[in-house]
Design brief:
The complex is a heterodimer of chains A (114) and B (113). Chain A has 114 residues and is mainly β. Helices cover 0% and strands 56% of the residues of chain A. The chains are: A mainly beta (114), B mainly beta (113).
């Protein structure tokens, strides 16, 4: 089973709202990732958690705040977003933060910021 | 800046033909390479991973890696209309902070029946 789940599937929010995206995996993976994908572009890495610790933050604005409450869950808290933040937000996980490990993607949350 | 380059396409092939997708990467120290397929509106799905020079076959798919030339390719034999999608080449980089998957821009494949 290589399932990564994400909720919600779709989200519409105003620029003053606070919302959270949720990602869950039960494969015992110890590395989890957030990517952002704009239309017609490849996924771009935002954050990496290794063994529940934030290991990579790709210069993401502070209006995006990741959280890893435990080894199965990954959240992305959103606050004061801009319309240009509208995108598909993808969560992924891998067995470990090793180069040879495959990353498995969830279905994504499609976010629209008005 | 570590980069992964792909021809964006579209690559159009008739049903039953071989589709050839190519990718080059800039970081000579890269060790792990992946091909993902992404249907419109969906998330990336792993097709193949390859780590050693040479060919790796899985059903109708063959991945080829040449580290000296910094080149990765994906061949799809007996292409089907259901193979129509964007194919993303990805390289997993390892640095002190952890691993980071770097994607090419993707090649859009269209298989006509």
């Amino acid at each position: 089973d290589t399932e990564v789940t994400q909720t919600p599937k779709h989200l519409v929010m105003g620029m003053t709202n606070k919302k959270s995206l949720k990602c869950e995996q039960h494969m015992g993976h110890r590395a989890m990732y957030w990517y952002k994908q704009k239309a017609k572009k490849p996924p771009e890495l935002m954050f990496v958690y290794s063994y529940e610790k934030l290991s990579i933050n790709e210069s993401v604005p502070s209006r995006f705040s990741p959280e890893c409450p435990n080894s199965s869950l990954l959240n992305l808290h959103l606050h004061a977003l801009q319309p240009e933040d509208s995108a598909l937000y993808l969560c992924a996980s891998s067995q470990a933060p090793r180069q040879e490990e495959t990353q498995y993607f969830g279905p994504g949350t499609r976010l629209l910021v008005l | 800046q570590k980069e992964v380059e792909q021809n964006s396409g579209p690559l159009s092939v008739p049903e039953g033909a071989i589709a050839s997708l190519n990718c080059t990467y800039s970081d000579r120290g890269s060790q792990s390479f992946f091909w993902y397929r992404q249907y419109s509106g969906k998330s990336p799905e792993l097709i193949m991973s390859i780590y050693s020079n040479g060919d790796k076959e899985d059903g109708r798919f063959t991945a080829q890696l040449n580290k000296a030339s910094q080149y990765v390719s994906l061949l799809i034999r007996d292409s089907q209309p259901s193979d129509s999608a964007t194919y993303l080449c990805a390289v997993n980089l390892l640095n002190q902070a952890g691993t980071a998957l770097i994607f090419g821009k993707g090649t859009t494949l269209s298989v006509s029946s």
